[in-house]
Design a protein that fits this description.
Length: 281
Amino acid sequence: MNLVSLALDDLGGAELFPLDALMTLRQKWDEARGPLLDALKAFASGADRTPENAGRVFFGLHLMAEKRETEAWAPLLAVAGEGEVLYDMIGDASTETLPAILLSLYSGDLDGLKKLIESPRADEWGRVAALECLSALAARGEISRDDAQAFLAHCFETLQPRESHAVWYGWQGCVALLGLSELEPLAARAFRQGLVDNSILGFEDFQADLRASRASANPVELFDERGIHPIDDALDALAVFDEEDEEPSPPAENPLKNVGRNDPCPCGSGKKYKKCCLAAE
């Protein structure tokens, strides 16, 4: 068995963070690219959704993002469109690094990105990540800012569900980060109608973000500060999952998998989950 095959096995079954395997695959990318894409496609098609393959895909996606492997775009969107299956594949990356992965793998398929955002069947945090990717593309000048504004305005009328949901959290955040003052009245309505959970985020928070974007000389920096930027180093991006040499979370079963980072913490503290028990893990 060659080094690449051994490294791929390590991604699927490592008890500790597989740093050596990741380094090997990065160094031998010409050999590693095909098997990692095959692992992703096998998960997307349903041919192999074992925890072992999920581990390969989780780490492989970060490497493919670093390498700008746009062939990974379509199967990743297909999985995100299936709902909670996305979490089975990449675990906590769905709320941590997925926006950066999408931005890195973007193939020019803007229609596919919009379809994911608008699909009520899709994973909720996958929809948020897609919104953040679309907005970052507009901030970076890779798609028309006017078109992004028109789409976000359209989303206010069409997005489902018409109740408090993570997708509305993502929607208001993108309006604010892009500094779209023209859409502030729609954002105000979203907060008034309870589409954005006011116990998690207030309209004044939206306005503060909007002002910061309008005052910024370089709006891209605001996205960068929130981790919404292309992945140039997969190991740096994966560092958030390498705390105290514990096993990365994606293949593991997480009893709090339906709790979003910005949801109220289940412990009852009144704080956001990311500021309470998630931060303490």
